[in-house]
Amino acid sequence: MDELKRDVPKSRQCYMYETGASEDDARKYIGFLIYETWKKMNEDGNANSPFSRTFIVIAMNLARMAQFSYQYGDGYGVQDRETKDRVMTLLIEPISLTCISV
């Protein structure tokens, strides 16, 4: 597995290496883990917690932003600018108010 030697291994690559799974099976498994984690976070976010509601909302929003940012690659190892463009659109470029009809 030459990919593991070149840079920091991705979760999918680690799973393939550790279990011998195919790339498709590894992608499905990681997707399943992400789905289950979101389900648990949403359930726990509504449960009694020692943390303030504001803290929980901020933590959930950071997780959403991380998933949005890294959904199509890491933006560092992938040089197609997809992640950079997504971050620019999300955080930097203003929303045009002329597009919104009231």
Task: Describe what is shown at a glance.
The chain is mainly α and 102 residues long. It has 5 helices and no strands. It has helices at 3-6, 11-19, 23-45, 53-70, 82-92.
Structure characterization notes:
With 102 residues, this protein is mostly helical. It contains 5 helices and no strands. The model has no long low-confidence stretch (mean pLDDT 78).
Please name the defining characteristics of this protein:
102 residues; mainly alpha; 5 helices
SSE topology sketch:
Elements: H1 3-6, H2 11-19, H3 23-45, H4 53-70, H5 82-92
Helix pairs in contact: 2-3
Total count of helical runs of at least 4 residues: 5
Please compute the radius of gyration using only Cα atoms.
18 Å
Mean pLDDT: 78
Form type: flat
Uncertain regions: pLDDT < 50 for 5+ in a row? Answer: none
SSE-based structural type: mainly alpha
Distance between the ends: 55 Å
| Count of DSSP strands | 0
Note the run of SSEs as H and E. Answer: HHHHH
Tell me the β content.
under 5%
Main sheet specs: none
Relative helix content = 55-70%
